[in-house]
């Protein structure tokens, strides 16, 4: 049997940002693009161990697993513990589409008191507490690319993007982080 | 002392804090807080530039962003240099270099000044008439010459070393302008609890309080009240106060563009700071408190250095402590200029006379003038001025005739009244309305959620302005759901209410055609030019504007628009509103490209998409080409190899041994659901029901019109799951195309689409040794020909990680495409390479890929097709299902035009001389001797040297091509005509046996 190939993340070794907004590549995670109708949500929620959110700009989290609402029949599932989400979905026994996008996306963590300001350098979304509280998530744009912005904590944001766009996202967030603290 | 004209005890700058700068090489002292204009005036310098067209000496006209004359070049060092900077806006910093513009050899002696003497030849519209003949000379001779002679500063040639930042922001209430009205509004809104952003273009808040010392608010000096209020607002958590920040553009849905000047006033800025910061603000409500701009008087020679707006002189005195002259005259049609005279007189400056165009000046100011002993000449006009590089006298005459009296002066202050700044309101698509009683355009019909307050709304009087501001702030806060705080009350008092004002030219503007009474200083437009425009038949303000260029300079006519209108109105004998007002466009004042571009430069200009194997490719000498935003390995030259050598070697090696190719950029879409096959049937021409799980098929996608839109190999992974590939460039639009049809035409289908382009790294291994290379790395897949034939897909493990292994070929050789999760791509590639290299294989790039596929006649959508090619035209009829009754494009394919004889069809071309490689895009004709215009049959779409064939090969779209097999056609080129023979498109392995090797 051949040696197991080693994994190399697209942003391996990068660091950036400022004291007020640290910008770091997130650890590998498993991810699922989940599509399903309303009638399948109960079974799928049970399979994933969290209640799939049904309101725009919301998410549900449990034990390092997050389900972000992206559309009326679309969720992005992220498992920071790298559980086999495809297998969990397959066990639900209801009509849905699950596609493994663990490697398609990569994530950048922006954290600190100026985290929202760093992202606002290129993201036209209102990231303030009233509109984008802890737990909020939305598919949006950052500069010239599409991203999914997610706010897991008061001063913590997770920016998900496709891997080939990640150096661009990382560069823009780093510049934004430097300016946000000034 | 920083300048002889600085008056001790006047102004707000600190005498101890000095800065030193140069103007045209001469060193001057300034105080911290000075603008270039105030510092020059403090040093007695009035002459700062030459005018645009006539090269007339010009001075400082204003103390604000409306400045049309004093445009200078400001630099920090060679690279940090900016032309056309408005001297009254730019703050002085220690070590700054200021140069005057549009003069040669020097400001005081400028050869271009001859234009002034030749001005009878340069009447408005002369460009359109004079330089029409000969026509060709315009581009080569006239235009370059005129551009050189007429003009502004020179753009810097070095790269801008500064950086710029951008921020998106949201608020409940955005207040533009921090004068009395804006501060009142912001205070009321903030106290109610609204999220407020307050912006002002000046370094400090205060607006007119900079110069009006008579104002008291809640018993406090007005300017001090403004600073205290700003400090209070800054301390509130829900308020952002931005000074040195211009609201330059008002766009849809209360989206307002701001530019914040962060370092332009600093001598040694922290390198971390951006030079400017672009703010893009989405405000629930906007309050416009943009104030108004004083107009100049229009009379003969009203442009000499030393002639300026009365409020400007007052600002220089009361804020900067600078007297603009020792003996000043005042020419006005409005009370406000009197207060400038009073302030100057009290500061010890001689006021020669106040010339008032009106018969009846305001009683209050008249009484005060008498008290101060200032001569007032009511019902008089200034009819001319003298002075070469600075005004030395004014000629004053009684209105209606009489002899003129010359009064020596060294500065002349003027005021024709105040123009409300409705620029942002107009940009918001609000409609202005003309108020005939006061002769002003004021906000009329609102188009967005905004309110105008204060003098931009035509509100006169201090207390009325305060109350209007407070009410608007409270109203807008309530409208956004904030009702907290107590009622804010403020009381203000000031010395005089202002009356009067005029628009257009007075007696001193003359009626003849030689007097230069300037309406638009920046574009050198005089009253006579407007009259000429009307005489020439321009009756709409839009035509008059373009004929004369009035209001078309970078100041956008902040001073000139109303005068121009009024003169046209008088000549046309039509009321002003009937002539109309030109529309104001963003930006309010010029915005640097740097701010607009902000972060989008260098690596952040555009995303450079790289595959997981990019680093390896780079390390192995790959040359890259751009495909969309992707960087793709183009070819891998070894030392001493040209591109041609490298591609020939790569082509040979793939067919003789094997090649390894990075195909990761191909678009991938996963189509999942019980109706997946039915959806595929509708989106592609092929039939998909018969495709068994584990097998692949080449699919063609059409647009509704029947033309080829995209193609790619599709693998069926299971009954309800397809792995679709698209062209690299087509990935996003194919996804959208499919999603569009799914949502609008086929919403009944239970199927979902997910882009997986970047989930998989794709490594193509092609050639006779492909299987030998891969076999030891594969786990759980029987690699034998029988178990895993051409056009199959298997799931298993590769180097221990999950794979979707495709047996497919875009080279005509036996081949595989190894799909592994992207993060493993590099390691898997290295493992493959470790086996491939000893077996004599090579890495190959996109150029070799192109040649190898052309040798097999495989098309590239977008190269061999151009949006007018059907599958039949491309010899792909076999891929169009005959059984299906519906798919996107089926109706289009039946259109008479698409099935008629003689359509352009894709064929092969072989040059008679095998060494000649045709040019792609070259035209093809049947008769090379036909007179021009020749009948063109089509064009070459792909053309290469084929090392494997030992000759050139080409593909072409040729009218009736299939029926021309074996015919000789011709490709006329500039230097020769190339004979070609029409052939089929398969140049290598016509039987296709190698695919199964």
UniProtKB/TrEMBL annotation, chain A:
Keywords: Oxidoreductase. It comes from the Bacteria. Residues 1-24 are annotated as: Disordered. GO terms for molecular function: sarcosine oxidase activity. It is an enzyme of class 1 (oxidoreductase). Pfam families: SoxG. GO terms for biological process: sarcosine catabolic process. Its EC number is 1.5.3.1. The keyword Oxidoreductase applies. InterPro entries: SoxG, SoxG_het, TrmE/GcvT-like. This is Sarcosine oxidase subunit gamma. It comes from Shinella fusca.
Automatic annotation (TrEMBL), chain B:
Coiled coil: none annotated. Residues 516-596 form the SoxA A3 domain. It comes from the Bacteria. The keyword Oxidoreductase applies. InterPro entries: 2Fe-2S-bd_N, FAD/NAD-bd_sf, FAD/NAD-binding_dom, GcvT/YgfZ/DmdA, GcvT/YgfZ_C, GcvT_C, GCVT_N, Sarcosine_oxidase_asu. Keywords: Oxidoreductase. Residues 904-989 form the Aminomethyltransferase C-terminal domain. One of its GO terms (biological process) is tetrahydrofolate metabolic process. Residues 172-430 form the FAD/NAD(P)-binding domain. This is Sarcosine oxidase subunit alpha. The lineage of its organism: Bacteria, Pseudomonadati, Pseudomonadota, Alphaproteobacteria, Hyphomicrobiales.
């Amino acid at each position: 049997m051949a040696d197991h190939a080693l994994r190399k993340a697209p942003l391996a070794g990068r660091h950036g940002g400022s004291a007020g907004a640290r910008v770091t590549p997130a650890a590998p995670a498993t991810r699922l693009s989940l599509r399903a109708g309303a009638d399948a949500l109960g079974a799928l929620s049970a399979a994933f161990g969290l209640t799939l959110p049904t309101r725009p700009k919301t998410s549900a989290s449990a034990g390092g697993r997050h389900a972000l609402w992206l559309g009326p029949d679309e969720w992005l599932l992220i498992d920071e513990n790298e559980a086999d989400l495809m297998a969990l979905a397959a066990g639900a026994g209801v009509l849905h589409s699950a596609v493994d996008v663990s490697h398609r996306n990569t994530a950048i963590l922006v954290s600190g008191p100026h985290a929202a300001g760093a992202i606002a350098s290129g993201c036209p979304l209102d990231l303030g507490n009233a509109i984008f509280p802890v737990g909020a998530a939305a598919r949006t744009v950052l500069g010239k690319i599409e991203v999914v912005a997610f706010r897991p904590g008061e001063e913590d944001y997770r920016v998900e993007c496709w891997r080939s766009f990640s150096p661009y996202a990382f560069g823009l967030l780093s510049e934004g982080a430097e300016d946000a603290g000034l | 002392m920083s300048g002889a004209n600085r008056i001790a005890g006047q102004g707000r700058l600190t005498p101890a804090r000095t800065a030193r700068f140069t103007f045209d090489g001469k060193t001057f002292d300034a105080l911290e807080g000075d603008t270039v204009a105030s510092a020059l005036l403090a040093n007695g310098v009035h002459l700062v530039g030459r005018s645009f067209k006539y090269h007339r000496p010009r001075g400082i006209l204003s103390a604000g962003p409306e400045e049309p004359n004093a445009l200078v070049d400001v630099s920090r060092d060679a690279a940090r240099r900016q032309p056309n900077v408005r001297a009254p806006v730019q703050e002085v910093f220690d070590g700054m270099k200021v140069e005057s513009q549009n003069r040669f050899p020097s400001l005081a002696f400028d050869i271009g000044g001859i234009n002034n003497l030749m001005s009878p030849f340069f009447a408005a519209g002369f460009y359109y008439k004079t330089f029409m003949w000969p026509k060709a000379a315009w581009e080569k001779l006239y235009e370059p010459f005129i551009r050189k002679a007429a003009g502004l500063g020179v753009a810097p040639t070095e790269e801008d070393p500064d950086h710029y930042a951008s921020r998106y922001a949201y608020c409940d209430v955005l207040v533009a302008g921090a004068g009395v009205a804006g501060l009142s509004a912001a205070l009321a809104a903030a106290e109610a609890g609204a999220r407020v952003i307050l912006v002002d273009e000046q370094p400090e808040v205060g607006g007119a309080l900079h110069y009006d010392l008579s104002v008291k608010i809640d018993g406090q000096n007005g300017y001090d009240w403004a600073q205290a209020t700003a400090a209070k607002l800054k301390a509130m958590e829900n308020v952002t106060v931005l000074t040195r920040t211009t609201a330059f553009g008002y766009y849809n849905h209360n989206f307002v563009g701001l530019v914040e000047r962060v370092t332009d006033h600093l001598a040694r800025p922290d390198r971390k700071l951006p030079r400017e910061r672009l703010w893009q603000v989405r405000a629930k409500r906007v309050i416009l408190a943009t104030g108004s701009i004083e107009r100049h008087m229009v009379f003969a020679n009203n442009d000499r250095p030393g002639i300026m707006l009365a409020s400007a002189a007052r600002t220089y005195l009361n804020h900067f402590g600078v007297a603009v002259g020792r003996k000043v005259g005042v020419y006005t049609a409005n009370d406000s200029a009197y207060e400038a005279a009073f302030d100057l007189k009290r500061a010890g400056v001689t006021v020669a006379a106040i010339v008032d165009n009106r018969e009846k000046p305001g009683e209050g100011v008249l009484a005060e003038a008498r008290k101060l002993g200032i001569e007032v000449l009511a019902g008089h006009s200034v009819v001319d001025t003298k002075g070469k590089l600075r005004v030395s006298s004014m000629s004053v005459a009684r209105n209606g005739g009489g002899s003129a009296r010359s009064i020596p002066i060294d500065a002349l202050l003027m005021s024709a009244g105040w123009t409300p700044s409705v620029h942002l309101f107009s940009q918001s698509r609000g409609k202005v309305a003309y108020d005939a009683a006061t002769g002003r355009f004021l906000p009329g019909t609102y188009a967005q959620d905004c309110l105008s307050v204060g003098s931009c709304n035509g509100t006169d009087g201090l207390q009325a302005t305060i109350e209007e501001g407070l009410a608007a702030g409270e109203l807008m806060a309530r409208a956004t759901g904030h009702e907290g705080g107590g009622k804010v009350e403020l009381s203000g008092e000031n010395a005089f209410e202002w009356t009067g004002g005029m628009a257009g030219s007075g007696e001193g503007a003359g009626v003849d055609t030689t007097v230069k009474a300037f309406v638009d200083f920046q574009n050198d437009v005089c009253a006579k030019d407007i009259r000429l425009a009307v005489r020439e038949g321009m009756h709409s303000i839009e035509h008059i504007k373009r004929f004369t260029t009035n209001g078309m300079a970078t100041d956008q006519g902040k001073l000139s628009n109303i005068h121009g209108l009024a003169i046209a109105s008088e000549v046309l004998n039509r009321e002003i509103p009937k002539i109309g007002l030109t529309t104001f466009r963003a930006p309010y004042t010029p915005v640097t490209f740097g701010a607009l571009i902000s972060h989008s430069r260098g690596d952040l200009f555009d995303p450079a998409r790289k595959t997981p194997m990019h680093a390896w490719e780079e390390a192995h000498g790959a040359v890259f080409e751009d495909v969309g935003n992707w960087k793709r390995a183009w070819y891998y030259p070894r030392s001493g190899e040209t591109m041609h050598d490298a591609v020939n070697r790569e082509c040979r090696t793939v067919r003789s041994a094997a090649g390894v190719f990075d195909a990761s950029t191909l678009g991938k879409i996963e189509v999942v659901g019980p109706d997946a096959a039915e959806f595929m049937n509708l989106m592609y021409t092929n039939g998909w029901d018969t495709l068994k799980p584990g097998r692949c098929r080449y699919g063609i996608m059409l647009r509704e019109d029947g033309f080829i839109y995209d193609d790619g190999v599709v693998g069926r992974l299971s009954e309800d799951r397809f792995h679709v590939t698209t062209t690299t460039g087509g990935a996003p639009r194919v996804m959208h195309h499919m999603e569009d049809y799914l949502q609008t035409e086929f919403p009944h289908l239970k199927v979902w689409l997910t882009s997986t382009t970047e989930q998989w790294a794709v490594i193509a291994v092609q050639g006779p040794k492909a299987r030998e290379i891969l076999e030891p790395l594969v786990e759980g897949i029987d690699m034998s020909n029988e178990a895993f034939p051409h056009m199959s897909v298997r799931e298993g493990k590769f180097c221990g990680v999950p794979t979707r292994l495709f047996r497919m070929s875009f080279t005509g050789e036996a081949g595989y495409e190894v799909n592994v999760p992207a993060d493993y791509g590099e390691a898997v590639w290295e493992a493959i390479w470790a086996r491939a290299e000893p077996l004599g294989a090579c890495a190959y790039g996109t150029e070799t890929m192109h040649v190898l596929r052309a040798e097999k006649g495989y098309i590239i959508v977008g190269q061999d097709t151009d949006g007018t090619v059907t599958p039949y035209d491309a010899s792909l009829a076999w891929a169009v299902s005959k059984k299906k009754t519906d798919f996107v494009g089926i109706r289009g394919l039946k259109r008479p035009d698409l099935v008629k004889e003689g359509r352009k069809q894709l064929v092969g071309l072989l040059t008679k001389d095998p060494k000649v490689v045709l040019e792609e895009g070259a035209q093809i004709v049947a008769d090379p001797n036909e007179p021009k215009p020749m009948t063109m049959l089509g064009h070459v779409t792909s053309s290469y040297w084929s090392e494997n064939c030992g000759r050139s090969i080409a593909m072409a779209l040729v009218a009736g091509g299939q029926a021309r097999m074996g015919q000789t056609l011709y490709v006329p080129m500039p230097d020769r005509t190339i004979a070609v023979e029409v052939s089929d498109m398969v140049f290598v392995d016509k039987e296709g046996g190698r695919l199964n090797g």
